[in-house]
Amino acid sequence: MSRNLNRYKIKVFISSKCDVAGVPPKYNPIRAELKRIIEQTGLADVYTFESEGASTLSAGNHYSLALEDSDVCIFLIDNADGISPGI
Predict the structure, then answer these.
(1) Separation CA 87–CA 40 (nearest Å)
(2) According to DSSP H, which parts of 1-87 are helical?
(3) At a CB cut-off of 8 Å and minimum separation 6, what does 22 contact?
(4) C-alpha separations of 76 from 22, 48, 54, 83 in Å
(5) pTM of the predicted model as reported, rounded to 2 decimal places
(6) What is the pLDDT of residue 2?
(7) Which residues contact 61 (CB under 8 A, 6 or more apart)?
(8) d(CA 48, CA 58)
(9) Contact, 69 vs 76, CB < 8 A?
(10) What averages of pLDDT result for each successive group of 10 residues across the chain (87 residues)?
(11) How far apart are CA 28 and CA 32, in angstroms?
(12) What are phi and psi of 39, to 5 degrees?
């Protein structure tokens, strides 16, 4: 029996401190590469804030709803950078 399991994909949420303009990017490339690798398996859909389009929701609401809807959360934290309230 063949089943279409694509509708049962794991929802993954990736977050980190935002990169700062004028400073070489640190987190954006890592989030993008993790998203690419995870989605390439075909087992999961990945949410990263920067990969989403425009929304009528505020950024905070959009982010929070995606977090609540996720099965797995990945938080990238470098203790040297500190932890911002958004993380």
Answers:
(1) 26
(2) 27-40, 59-68
(3) none
(4) 21, 12, 24, 10
(5) 0.75
(6) 47
(7) none
(8) 15
(9) no
(10) 66 84 80 95 90 70 83 88 65
(11) 6
(12) -70, -30
The total number of residues written for the chain in this structure: 87
Give the Cα separation of 34 and 50 in Å (integer). 13
Question: Amino acid identity, residue 10?
Answer: I
What is the predicted pLDDT for the residue at 13? 93
Q: Could you tell me if 47 and 31 are in contact, meaning their C-beta atoms sit under 8 angstroms apart?
A: no
Tokens of 87: 């993380």
* pLDDT on residue 1: 42
Given a contact cutoff of 8 angstroms between Cβ atoms, the answer to whether 68 and 9 are in contact is no
Structure tokens that stand for 6 in this block:
């694509």
Encoded tokens for 46:
């990945």
> Other C-beta atoms within 10 Å of 60: how many?
9
Q: Residue 62 is encoded by which pair of tokens?
A: 């959009």
Q: How many helices (H) and strands (E) does the chain have?
A: 2, 3
